[in-house]
Amino acid sequence: MPQKQPALRPNARARQTIVCFSHLRWGFVHQRPQHLLNHAAASYLVYFVEEPVAGEGPSHFRMQVAESGVIVLTPYIDPAAHQIEEQHKLVQDLHRSIAGDLVVHWFYTPMALQFVQDIPCDLCIYDCMDELSAFRFAPAGLRDLERDLLGRADLVFTGGRSLFEAKRAHHLDVHCFPSSVDVSHFGRARTAIPDPADQAHLPGPRIGFVGVIDERIDLDLIAQAASELPELQFVMLGPTAKIDPASLPHAKNIHWLGSKSYAELPAYMANWQAAWMPFALNDATRFISPTKTPEFLSAGLQVVSTAVPDVVAEYGQKRLVKIAEASSIAADLRASLTSPTPDWKRAVDRSLRQMSWGRTWNAMQGLMASRMTMPKELAHA
């Protein structure tokens, strides 16, 4: 029996609506889209449209409602059907349900233009959080579609300074909003929290990492550090993506503990002695601004990172994060285990006071409001 399409409109009252198109799934890793759109849901009706999954029968959205009120829509489409045409029909149906609203299209993936470009909106935003064309298995046509999206967007936000410098030549209204942090959430790690069961048996000292394990991670560097520092335990949290799990280095002091929920992370960090970010220096990391940097600092952990450009510029030059090379990784990780100085703690907290996802969202919302009232021909002048 075909699944009945749920009512897409929770109420009939006209309001401001954001329809977000994302390459990331809402339930995958809690990061920039979730932080910003959870804040947006306080004043907008927010739909988060994911990439499709295979499903039998007529195409339909599976609808889930996040605690914040964000409505997560997953397209279920028969593999034999034309994927783009079916997504177009579903999004058209969604727009019929919000007719009369002031509608914002919010893009994380330019690929969505394939089924959205002829559907009108009142404001078009590209929140560029990564240089997706540099990632492994980037879809064909991504660069061309991004160029089209940059031509269509009223506002462009970037997730870091390097992305800002790359995109500002292609749009007149680009604004840099680097990764922010929920200081109170990760600040819990500065207090005593019981050690999670799958970590509690590990001896110390522990140095931890949390994030997606993919082509951006330097697996050779992890193996090297574990070999040179057998007395340390390396705790690695996060899902594996786009790489063969068999390629992960294994040693007695490397512990791949898998994905953890956002709520669980402070408990793990509270029982680490330091954190590190062993990023590979390649095309995929040239433009990243890791959300985990301020999260580790909020947790009170000293951080060692490879020389990712945005980390160097935003944290390394301010001496908030130690920038390491492969030749110095062992010495730098050992040094990170020493008690932080009062000056470092003050500098970290001073920097963190300027950061919050709420503050970022309020600044974005202000720009959106000003563009809503600006004639389109002036907005694109």
TrEMBL record:
The keyword Transferase applies. SUPFAM superfamilies: UDP-Glycosyltransferase/glycogen phosphorylase (SSF53756). Keywords: Transferase. Gene3D superfamilies: Glycogen Phosphorylase B. GO terms for molecular function: transferase activity. This is Glycosyltransferase family 1 protein. It comes from Pseudotabrizicola algicola.
